[in-house]
Amino acid sequence: MSELLEMRDIVRCFGALRANDGIDLDVRAGQIVGLLGENGSGKSTLMKVLFGMLPPDSGKIVLRGRELSGHRPRDAIAAGVAMIHQHFMLVDAMTVLENVMLGWPAAGRMLRRAEMADRIRQTSRRFGLDLDPFARVGDLPLGRKQRVEILKAILREANLLILDEPTSNLAPTEVADLLKILRSLRAEGKGIIFISHKLPEVLELCDEVVVLRDGRVTGRTPAAGASRTRLAEMMVGRDVTTPHAPLPRTPGQVRLAVREVIVPGFSALSFDVHGGEILGVAGVDGNGQLELVETLTGLRRAESGAIMLDGVDVTRAPVAARVRAGMAYMPADRSSTALVRNMSVAENLMLRDSDRSPYVRGALLARQPLIAKARELMMEYDIRASGPGALVARLSGGNQQKIVVARELDRAPAVLVAHQAAWGLDPGATRFVLDRVIALRDAGAAVLYISSELEEVLTISDRIAVMADGKFAGLVSRAEADRRQIGLWMSGRAA
Amino acid sequence: MSEPTSSLPIAVPQQARRRGFRLQRGDRLVVRILLAVVLSMLCAGALIVISGHDPIAAFIALGTGALGSPHQFGAALNRTTPYLLAGGGVAMCFRAGIINIGAEGQIAVGGMGTAAVALAWPSDLSVVATVVALLGGAAVGAVWAGLATAIHLGRRVHEVLATLLLNFVALLLVQQVLAGPLGEFGAGFLQSPLLPRATWLPRIPQFSAHIGFLVAIVAAGALSFTLWRTRFGFALRVAGNSRPAATYAGFSLPLLTWSVMLLAGALAGLAGGIEVLGLHRRLIEGFSLGFGFKAVTVALLGALEPLAIVPAALFVGLLEAGSLSMQRQIGVPSALVVVIEGMTMLFVLAATVRRL
Amino acid sequence: MTDFLAAAIRIATPLMLAALGGILSECAGVFAVGLEGMMLAGAFAAIIGAWLSGSDLIGVLFSMLGGAAIALAVAIVAVRYRADHMVTGLTANILALGLTSYLLRVAGGGRPIAIHLTPLDAWPIPGLADLPVLGPLLFMQPPLTYLALLGCVVLAIFLTRTQAGLTLRATGENPEAVFASGAEPLRVRMLAVLACGAIAGLGGAVLSLQQVGTFTDGMTGGRGYLVLAALIVGRWNPWGAAAACLVFGAAEAFELRLQSFGVPVGSYIVQMAPYLIALAVLAGLGRSSKLPAAIGRPIQTD
Fold it and tell me: Where do the structural domains in chain C lie, given as residue ranges?
């Protein structure tokens, strides 16, 4: 087995942050290497360096005996590297055929459509990809879209495939299908780098596991016989603390009642959330979670049904009214919905409350009270920034989310709707967010916590629902939760 | 279905100058804009050389033409006024992420409205007549902007196209009205009869500038105050940064759009009325040509900050006032000034791009 | 009637050429607001080129250079420096207006230089020109009109059947995907804008060289903006845009007919026809869902 890839001492900094701090990585032909690490550990940066999307500050990359340096994706592709990105690099408005032909010289200057379509069909059959060349990519489910990227890699005869968090948007059956495809690719002699933060999958699939933390390699071991706890420690550090599971409580009154609300694009949904409980909603992203959340919080019009908050009908109420009625919302889209990146910390803290004191006096904004209150919140919620006037875009992801948490929780809301609240955050920030959510629940609020990370949902919820196809495929209490059953519910919409 | 999130055309300081908030971004921006001006002047110099004239002499003629005497400076202030008013309104729209380029048409119909009211109003009271006529012009300008807004919001037509196409319709409308009910018979070209003396804008003694400039300065101050110190201004700024965030914050995007467009239309209409009552004393064909697009230029040169638009508008006003002198004395075609304006804008755009 | 249609085609020719250029630009993701300035620069360059060299062909080539020059400014500021497309286009139009007026007067020593060339004659295609209806309509037109019609065919083939066209369209939909596929989206956009300028410049040549034989200040008169509407109406498709341009051309031809018949509708109201029709069609369509997904969005490839 020959050495396919050698990366030596890769360093890449973003300002003061050393995203890659001297990393070595080797991959052989016919080998799957798992690159394991939490968010912020440097995995994606390393792969962008390898693929030529980012230049390294220093270090060497040797692919099949030839050095790659100063290269762009075009050169990496020519050298036989293919990348299947976490956020697919596909053109939704075009067909599978057109996406495959894009940037591929073998398709010809004058595109040879019929020939390429045949090749797609053949390769798709051979590897079990089940792709129709003339299907519009935008219409495909996420699992199939991913296969288009894999198809591109195979057709371009890549020797080294890099998959960046490939299972984050897949249902369990789709994950199983993907692993099967990857194994057959390994059998063909391809080298694969499998990047993930999900320990079980990495152990199931990979031959060797490399663990990254804070930009450095903290462990390297064959997957066979590796200890899960050791690996988890290497990923997260010595203090592998999970957030305290909430103490059981008897739930109080129903604070959020949802009756026959039609989730746009799906069907009607009904459920209750009680005060003092966290209703966790697990499920693969794209099954109506965003539509549901936006309908509940007023960003979308409810076409029918009723939403009652503490007995008050808010179905037709505008966003501002729902905020005043006690509904807090932490959106999944941090960068352009939950926060205004180009404005200051203080202005973001005031974002949804600019019509009440202490932020306004009449129609005029009150500057001094704003700054004072902002300082207060920054202390209480440990928001690290140079001052209330700091631009939010300059803050780390964790601190940005702390602003959202501070703003929504300081209002002492009756109901909190949290959508992907800990997405993309490093373990410390994740812990912070979850602790605050639990504290809110302990204070008697009703929490609807939606996340595609099953572990998170299982850790903090009192009751767990699984959302698939716009419906609750199942709803159980924490005590009754069974992973296998939940996995089956999540696959309700398998590709 | 996703609307592209709106973004400001150029990077602007997101905070007003105040103690405790950092200043650096604003300062660097000013330096960049000044550099852009200097660069375009250098290019203009090169163009003057091509035409076979001496650039130094030309620039001196430009300068003295604008600043040479109080009378000439007054003429420059007159030129500045419509740019300041219309530019302020456009800047507020851009701050909210709405690209309104209908100032040209709004100024034209505003002037038409003012002339119509002035001719029909049988009052001897000078102040009343003037104020009512100006208000009439502002109202018509607002209506015209409202028309574009209705098309934009009601039928989902891009606001650039709606405001742009309505410009041409407005100009033709004014021409038609001048050929008809508001026209002066036997004049030879399209113009209205001379407006009643009572409606004429008073002049500032010595300067021969009409008081419209003072009105414009006050308006700029009011706009800046609104933008930074009121909740409405905050809502505009949030909307201009990110539409989803504005909805999330509880602001109504349609309401914001209507408000800021009507405001801009009223300001442009007012500018048109001031031109008619202060400068020409009658409605003449084509009196508003070029003002609308240049108002966009002025708004951007001022980095969308109403107070900074004052020097930006002055810059353009002085340039244009001096250009006729330059043409008369040195022989450099006055169209050079338009070239300077265009080049300055392009350099400013390149130099002030937002960091993503 | 045939006369009327033939006139409509003639009037629509500059619009069609500008539309072809605009499609290239917008399909690559750059709003083509600068079409007005590119046409104007092309119109000016065509007259100067033809006058200096004595050859109409040189004039036509010059028009492409003139349009491309304005396009270069847009390409650098909007694509390379990532400024807002709409505002850059507007500014380029102002620049073109000033520059053409200025150079016109520099060439004439202070007054606009008086150049009067013979407008281009129709080139009847032997044989086909004698066909009953289609003959005078399609085969007895001046050369640049043939070029416009041919251009529709060429552009359609380019966009749908070539690798370069595919890359261009993909850049307008998802430039990051283009980068990940190994191409350079920045370069694609800049080339698209330059090509847009060259072709729009040809449109300007139609106005000055083919139709009247001279150049006057601002002679494009807002046509470049009408073409923007035509692009949306025609859904960024060469044939659709050409059809939309034809409708606008017909509106103007109709308006000219009305004037010559002395119809008592105010002549200025009648001149509004093309703009009102454009607005009405846009309003009727609502927001087109086929807008290239990444249009107006600066490219972030780091």
Answer: 2-112+140-288
Q: Which domain holds residue B290?
A: 22-352
Q: Which two tokens stand for residue C212?
A: 């009247």
Question: What is the structure's pLDDT at B11?
Answer: 59
Q: Which CATH number goes with the domain that contains B193?
A: 1.10.3470
Looking at per-residue confidence, does A428 or A145 come out higher? A145
Of B151, B156, B349, the CB nearest to C88: B349
Section C150-159 average pLDDT: 95
Position A416 confidence tier, pLDDT thresholds 50, 70, 90: very high
Give the one of A83, A88, A103 whose C-beta lies nearest to C167's C-beta: A103
Say yes or no for a CB contact (<8 Å) between A337 and B249: no
Q: Please give the pLDDT value at position A94.
A: 94
Looking at residues C198-224, what average pLDDT do you find?
A: 93
Distance (Å) from the alpha carbon of A150 to chain C's nearest alpha carbon: 13
A360 DSSP β-pair partners: A365
Q: Complex ipTM, two decimals?
A: 0.88
Q: Around Cβ C224, how many Cβ atoms within 10 Å?
A: 28
* Cα–Cα distance measured from residue C207 to residue C219, given in angstroms and rounded to the nearest whole number: 8
Choose the CATH number for C2-112+140-288 among 1.10.287, 1.10.3470, 1.10.390, 3.30.310: 1.10.3470
> pLDDT-based confidence at A192, cuts 50/70/90?
very high
Do the chains contact at B238 and A342, CB–CB below 8 Å?
no
Q: Is B4 on the interface with A (CB under 8 A)?
A: no
Q: How many structural domains comprise chain B?
A: 1
Please report the pLDDT score of residue C42 as a whole number: 97
Residues of A whose CB is below 8 A from C170: 91, 94, 98, 102
- Tell me which residue in C166, C173, C182 faces A101 most closely, judged by beta carbons: C166
Which residues of C fall within a CB distance of 8 Å from A84?
none
In a domain, B103, yes or no: yes
